[in-house]
Amino acid sequence: xxxxxxxxxxxxxxxxxxxxxxxxxxxxxxxxxxxxxxxxxxxxxxxxxxxxxxxxxxxxxxxxxxxxxxxxxxxxxxxxxxxxxxxxxxxxxxxxxxxxxxxxxxxxxxxxxxxxxxxxxxxxxxxxxxxxxxxxxxxxxxxxxxxxxxxxxxxxxxxxxxxxxxxxxxxxxxxxxxxxxxxxxxxxxxxxxxxxxxxxxxxxxxxxxxxxxxxxxxxxxxxxxxxxxxxxxxxxxxxxxxxxxxxxxxxxxxxxxxxxxxxxxxxxxxxxxxxxxxxxxxxxxxxxxxxxxxxxxxxxxxxxxxxxxxxxxxxxxxxxxxxxxxxxxxxxxxxxxxxxxxxxxxxxxxxxxxxxxxxxxxxxxxxxxxxxxxxxxxxxxxxxxxxxxxxxxxxxxxxxxxxxxxxxxxxxxxxxxxxxxxxxxxxxxxxxxxxxxx
Length: 438
Known about the structure:
Oligomer: single chain
CATH superfamily of the largest domain: paralog of FGE (formylglycine-generating enzyme)
CATH class of the largest domain: Alpha Beta
Order of helices and strands: HHHHHEEEEHHEEEHHEEEEEEE
CATH architecture of the largest domain: Alpha-Beta Complex
Helix content: 25-40%
Number of helices: 9
């Protein structure tokens, strides 16, 4: 029988490590540029970096110090400034935000107190503290904002502020282009992943017809063939809304791409470079992904299809935490955690392959699915409706799998992301599927 004290200590160590990893990344993203860059709004789609910094601290204070520990508010007067639903991103630069040094001090003060709370936590008693959920939720929240800040770094103009080694080169992938996923039921979602968020719950059985899915995400080379074949000029590949969107905004290629003579170039974190043909395509919106799939005679996978391809192990008729099993990700499994600032070539990470033979389902690029963001049967909002519930409906499409910008704490086989179908500043790509003829 497992000693509960040992379980609590393991949870404490995991929570501490997750919080420290997130804060180290936040520090990197906010210390590599000067104060004017921190307070500027680099795109109306994004907040100033300094807003994210103080918002991270404010959320940590509200949930770990006030909700968990019952402490009085440190800075109650700033709650409204950093309420994401009270102030849209476009208007945040006009708010009386904490200046960078004060935001840093505030976030550091909150963190020091939060670690004291964590040191004394019992991890029982309430749903918020059970298995350290609140601490895991805050670590995930910070990492999600770190990804948001990395997007802001990609959007900002000026010299490169971030560096990272490139992924290891791999031989050109020559395996099968698609994999058969058998039909039948599987368990979707989770009821026992301790830090899973509300929209991942509860576990339920889902029936999926047999289908075939791309072994790897769609590459830049494949997407260039779509462009070369007039993909952006032919309305039959597009939904009516998608065609209107690309016409209205004069979209003719993925975001950050431009044509220079006979070559496609892209801007990546302040550097202009040739578009690498074997990398998964990046910075495409749902409409673009859907149009490519139609052009290719295929379709985007549903969310349930994607999860079955990623988690189903036919040998045990079970759903694993990750494509490779239940073990936490390592650098051999997936491209995660801003370890690199780009996707790895298609076909990388054979150790991360699913039992069915699908690769790169976790990390590299978020993958658009055809599904609207909807609750699972039996869904209950927790701990607040604004995390998931207010976004449910046909307006948002589901993305799965994470990207190179996602930390492992905020990425698993059940993790659900969502966004508007027009969004492409995010680190989004896709793979395609087709129904199996019976």
